[in-house]
Amino acid sequence: METKPIQKYQEFLSKSILIDQTHLIAVLLDKKVHDQSCYVYNQLEYTGFLSAGSFWGTEDMIWIKKEEILKEIDKLKISREQDTILDHKQLAKDLEQLTSDLRKVNEMKGRKRSIYQWLLVPHWLSSELITMGEVVFRAFGCSWWGVSSILDDYFTKEQVLLDLVEEIDIADIL
Fold first, then answer.
1. SS3 111
2. 3-class DSSP state of 54
3. What are phi and psi of 74, to 5 degrees?
4. Any bridge partners for residue 142, and if so which?
5. 33: which residues sit within 8 A by CB, 6+ positions away?
6. For residues 153 and 67, what is the distance between their CA atoms, to the nearest angstrom?
7. CB 54, CB 108: distance < 8 Å
8. pLDDT of 117-149, one tens digit each?
9. Is the pTM of this model over 0.70?
10. pLDDT tens-digit profile of 45-75?
């Protein structure tokens, strides 16, 4: 028998132990503890417009985007050298567009994300959240999720959790 989505979501929430820790994190961050055991992941966000449309990402996502653009540029250069492309004007236009995108990505400045709430989460969940580009603070063997948006349709806390429920199997958590 298939688990209903609401039951699956409730089971996920009971396993993820979401506890509001906003005040504790504010105190820890105010102390400016410079210790290797403390690290805030995905604290900066980068936005800009590329040829394919708007771009939003974290520092890791910026590096991935740069690698993708560089690979595309290399493919076009190889095609030009091997003379496998018949339309050289289109090739030049594509190269110019990719070069422009790379320049824009390199010039993007990170902006510190506002955190509205800090929630204590298990380590496995914090790893998933980091992968999704969410802000995570790890210190003293604990992980806290920094909820950085409360109004957007997609990036609400509930939507992020629903997306995680769809991606992972609850049985893997046990």
1. strand
2. strand
3. -60, -40
4. 139
5. 139
6. 29
7. no
8. 888 888 888 888 898 888 999 887 788 888 887
9. no
10. 999 999 989 998 998 899 999 999 999 989 8
